[in-house]
Write a structure and sequence with these properties.
Layout: H1 4-9, E1 17-20, E2 24-28, E3 36-42, H2 57-73, E4 81-84, E5 100-104
Antiparallel strand pairs: 1-2, 2-3, 3-5, 4-5
């Protein structure tokens, strides 16, 4: 069954796509946590990092070069941005389709907050 992201990739569901090629698609998150919040996803369905195979290496490397390009185009490359990959429910992964969050446009604070 196609994921929500697969339907965005094939344009069955509308989204603000900022980049697309034969390997990856990048689009604006519908619930942004910062002024810039872009999701970058493989065009093939990979549920999580636990499902990454050696044959995915080229695409995953390309995903990071696309992240750099999108960060530049969105104006956050110089000030800084965060790339986040969640894996599984404890991490907050909501869609079972591997994706990278590119977040920036403001001070993002600490990566993880500690509990006492």
């Amino acid at each position: 069954m196609p994921t929500l992201f697969s339907k965005i990739i094939t344009r069955e569901i509308p989204a603000s796509i900022v980049y697309q090629d034969d390997l990856v698609t990048a689009f604006k998150d519908i619930n942004p946590v910062a002024p810039v919040h872009i999701l970058i996803v493989p065009n093939i369905e990979i549920a999580s990092t636990n499902d990454v195979l050696p044959e995915h290496e080229k695409m995953l490397g390309h995903l990071f070069t696309v992240a750099k390009q999108v960060a530049q185009e969105q104006g956050v490359a110089e000030s800084g941005y965060r790339l986040i990959v969640n894996n599984g429910s404890d991490s907050g992964q909501e869609v079972a389709h591997l994706h990278v969050h590119l977040i920036g446009g403001r001070n993002l604070g600490p990566l993880v907050q500690t509990r006492e």
